[in-house]
Design a protein that fits this description.
37% helix, Arc Repressor Mutant, subunit A, Pnp Oxidase, Chain A, three-stranded antiparallel sheet, single chain, 317 residues, seven-stranded antiparallel sheet, alpha+beta, 15 strands
């Protein structure tokens, strides 16, 4: 690639293209010179070698914790589980009190160890390389821990879980084995219903020139609604850093407004943003009506109410 080729795209174009590559989500921790715990969310984690066991991750040079990690002799990489999006969001914030109400312990090397993660790699710094605007930190893995939990996935600016891809059955193809047990599992049907409904609709979203992340934000701000950025991140399953990048791009296009009051950032939809997704809102409502019209043994309101109770955890209270 020539220099002129490299200049044909912006840094935002580069980040958007990279977002197509889904990764796991990690939190890297260490301690500073005063033995204070330090941690940050990082998706730039990868394996390097098995003999010796080496991993790498990278930290932007402008990050507040970059000098600490660059000087650290030991650190730990925590692979987050699917129920730890809030923890990821907390450690993604710059300058926040990340350990105040976080469950953790300190290991023999003085590194903060977070609880209930999917896997952990305890590392000694092997080498540090300069990589443009990042430091590439290679660690030698001294110990590992795995809870055999499903790992959190990040791609397209949004959190996700990894679901197996299935090949549609051909006509006349028989199913192998008994499916009675799975067919009676609620979470199986909830997952299958979501994927069947979302797959087709998300194709329509992309046909409108929107990413799924942009759609979720636009739908949440539909009707020129207001929402704090923290609530918006929770509602849309987006990581705050990626979400702010998307919101900034949307604001430049006049699709939303960003304001701040008493230190709290707020996003509000605009008329232009409303019109951008109005057809998609109508299509979503039409699809919902069509699907629910075939359900006669339970009312749509009861079904929605039950699903809300499940997602809010009310059935476990």
């Amino acid at each position: 690639m020539t220099g002129s080729d490299a200049e044909s795209f912006s840094s935002r174009d580069f980040r958007d293209a990279l977002s197509s590559f889904a990764t796991g989500v990690t939190i890297v921790t260490t301690t500073d010179a005063d033995n204070n715990p330090v941690g940050m969310t990082a998706s730039s984690f990868n394996s390097v070698s098995t003999e010796p066991p080496l991993i790498l991750w990278s930290v932007t040079k402008t990050a507040q914790s970059a000098p600490v990690f660059k000087a650290a002799e030991h650190f730990a990489v925590h692979v987050l589980a699917t129920d730890q999006t809030d923890l990821s969001n907390k450690f993604a914030k710059s300058g926040a009190d990340k350990f105040g109400d976080t469950s953790y312990s300190i290991d023999a090397a003085g590194v903060p160890i977070l609880d209930n993660i999917a896997a952990r790699f305890d590392c000694k710094t092997w080498q540090i390389y300069e990589g443009g605007d990042h430091w590439i930190i290679v660690g030698e893995v001294l110990a590992i821990e795995s809870a055999k939990k499903e790992g959190l996935v990040f791609g397209g600016g949004t959190y996700a879980i990894a679901s197996p891809l299935t090949t549609p059955k051909q006509n006349g193809e028989a199913e192998v084995g008994s499916t009675d047990l799975v067919d009676n599992m609620l979470f199986y049907h909830l997952s299958r219903a979501y994927h069947q409904m979302a797959h087709q609709f998300h194709e329509e979203v992309r046909n409108k020139g929107l990413t799924v992340a942009e759609w979720r934000i636009s739908a949440s701000l539909f009707g020129q609604a207001k929402c704090t950025l923290s609530d918006l991140a929770s509602r849309t399953f987006l990581d705050p850093i990626s979400m702010e990048d998307i919101l900034s791009a949307m604001e430049e296009q006049g699709l939303c407004d960003l304001t701040e009051s008493n230190g709290i950032r707020v996003a509000q939809g605009t008329l232009k943003g409303h019109k951008r997704v109005e057809d998609l809102i109508n299509l979503a409502n039409e699809n919902e009506t069509s699907i629910l019209s075939s359900i006669t043994d339970v009312s749509p309101d009861v079904l929605k109410s039950t699903l809300k109770k499940i997602t809010n955890g009310a059935l476990n209270s």
